[in-house]
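Long-time lurker, first post.

We've been arguing in lab meeting about whether guanosine-5'-diphosphate would sit comfortably in this protein at all. Half the group thinks yes, half thinks no, and nobody has a model to point at. So I'm putting the question to the forum: if I give you the sequence and the SMILES, can you give me back a predicted structure of the complex? Inputs are below. Any interpretation is welcome too.
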Amino acid sequence: MTCNDCRNYCQTSPGKLTAIWDRFWKNNQFKKSSNSLIPTRATIALVGSPNVGKSLLFNLLTGSYTTVSNYPGTTVDISQGQAIIAGQTVSIIDTPGMYSLIPMTEEEQCSRDFLLTESIDLVIHVIDAKHLSRMLALTFQLMEIQLPVLLAVNMLDEAEKLGIWVNEKQLEASLGIPVVTLSAYKKRGIETLKAKVGNYVTTPALSYSY
Ligand SMILES: Nc1nc2c(ncn2[C@@H]2O[C@H](COP(=O)(O)OP(=O)(O)O)[C@@H](O)[C@H]2O)c(=O)[nH]1
Ligand SMILES: [Mg+2]
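Top reply:
Settle the argument with this. Predicted structure of the protein with guanosine-5'-diphosphate, as tokens:
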């Protein structure tokens, strides 16, 4: 079934949303002075439950040149910034917290709509290492809808204090997607994250089969 076939049953109008987002990007993507108009090669979205460290990670990746806007038609904040990864300028989006692709709140609805309607080169699913198995449910949902997913297991410092150790390589082998363990708070694992994200920036055709 194509998207248009289900229009009568669903509230989301992909064409309309895309048009709104086109305007959003045009207004916000190159807001800085004209000598810093650097085209963005890839779009990377940070997604995950509330309070897992998405915004802290977003700030570490983008620095202070960010734009905060309302998601079209809502009062939900969505931040967009740029980062240099593997020598390329990439666009990083900090999405509102979501537990599942089946939305219960306006924030989740915005994040879900964003993921389903926009062209995204990589989704970084940020999870809390202390609640690994519970949070993997959304990872599987993202993989199921064929999005390119990188799992960022954050809050490693807190997990380690509780005696929880995460085996990055084993998790990568089990899930079949790239995994990075990190502590955004301690700035641990950020370079490894950038290196793995760099694969998506320099090799756009790279994809994983689940
Ligand atoms: N100990 C620890 N705290 C973190 C880490 N990452 C984020 N935090 C803290 O967790 C809280 C929520 O982070 P935030 O980035 O706002 O989460 P978001 O809701 O996913 O955007 C803040 O107080 C952060 O400073 C981490 O790796 N370790
Ligand atoms: Mg946040």
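For your lab meeting: The pocket of magnesium ion (ligand 2) is lined by residues 54-55 (CB under 6 Å). The beta strands are 42-47, 66-70, 77-85, 88-94, 122-128, 149-154, 179-181. Whichever side wins, do check it experimentally.
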